[in-house]
Amino acid sequence: xxxxxxxxxxxxxxxxxxxxxxxxxQSSGEQTVKGKVDTVSRIHIKYAKGFWLEECEGYVVLxxxxxxxxxxxxxxxxxxxxxxxxxxxxxxxxxxxxxRSAICMTSLQLSNFIKLGAMDRVVGITSTRFLFNKDMQRQxxxxxxxxxxxxxxxxxxxxxxxxxxxMLISPFKRGGYDxxxxxxxxxxxxxxxxxxxxxxxxxxxxxxxxxxxxxDVANREFARIEQRYNSLKAMVGxxxxxxxxxxxxxxxxxxYAVGGKSFLAQLFHDAGADYxxxxxxxxxxxxxxxxxxxxxxxxADYWRIANSFAGEYCYDALKAQDERYADFKAFKEKxxxxxxxxEKPFYESMPAEPEVVLADMIRVFHPEILPDHEPVYYxxxxx
Length: 383
Prior knowledge:
Blueprint: H1 2-18, E1 19-21, E2 30-33, E3 41-44, E4 51-56, E5 60-65, E6 74-81, E7 94-97, E8 102-104, H2 107-116, E9 122-125, H3 134-141, E10 146-147, E11 149-150, E12 153-154, H4 156-162, E13 166-169, H5 178-183, E14 187-189, H6 198-202, H7 204-212, H8 215-235, E15 244-247, E16 249-251, E17 254-258, H9 263-270, E18 274-275, E19 285-288, H10 290-297, E20 302-307, H11 315-321, H12 329-332, E21 336-340, H13 354-365, E22 379-380
Parallel strand pairs: 6-7, 8-9, 8-13, 9-10, 13-14, 15-18, 15-20, 20-21
Antiparallel strand pairs: 1-4, 2-3, 4-5, 5-6, 11-12, 16-17, 17-19, 21-22
Helix pairs in contact: 2-7, 7-8, 8-13
């Protein structure tokens, strides 16, 4: 029995001394990562909760976990300098850095590459239905970036011909990755869409920057985003009146909204408004019936809607979807805050530009503070 106990103690100590966690230094929020053999790059993780790093002997462990659900799978990868011969634990998938080519499964993932100016590293994407970036569209037209199908229905022959260094995935969606695993391409989750704050979501630019060997660029870009976002947030910190805003629409008789601990609720708060479900403890999607929404939002000042309406969206079109919409105060006062995702790069650029979205919202809720701001994503629906 003493021998067994000694064995487990020895294993524990080996693990403890092998990897030194650098991801949660609460005093400075700073961690050091050996991205190359002869250089040390700093990655500052201040807001994102879905990834962190552990520095080991000759490699770095990348940890990824759903920031909303602690019970979900904890993913780990050994990041090693490309071309090196580093000893890593056998149970950890290895990703060689820098990544030279990648497949993006979502527009949010793509937004990080666009912000970093690294579109040339994207060799595969899924749907191009709402592809706004001209450089990405050119790459698709010229065959430099290939369409690989959709989740659950991949074109494995195309993926094999591309042979990317890795594939960024969304593991909690439709899936269909088993066949891709057999090809031997590392599948790495990108969970930026699960973050509960705008800056937390935007900070995933550092995640992609780390993979691409562009840590310095990612740090500079995020520092600019953070400074502007917090500066705008401070402008409405002392406003006397905080309007109430509700969000969503009926689809198939169900009203889809988000909880009070969500990314969107935080955005409204930072823009000097109160979300109508601000006391709801959930961070993800919430399904409600019309009566529940009406009881809580009938007198709300603003109504946020983002959809892909074909044609000109207006109050008549909104009322045509459901006549009861006209009973909301926000409808009567023409205070619908609208984004048409057919016309705006909602998923393709917005996740990496929270400061721009915040400015849009402040202009709506407190126009006297940003009178000269030109709306980019959201504006008041006028007709």
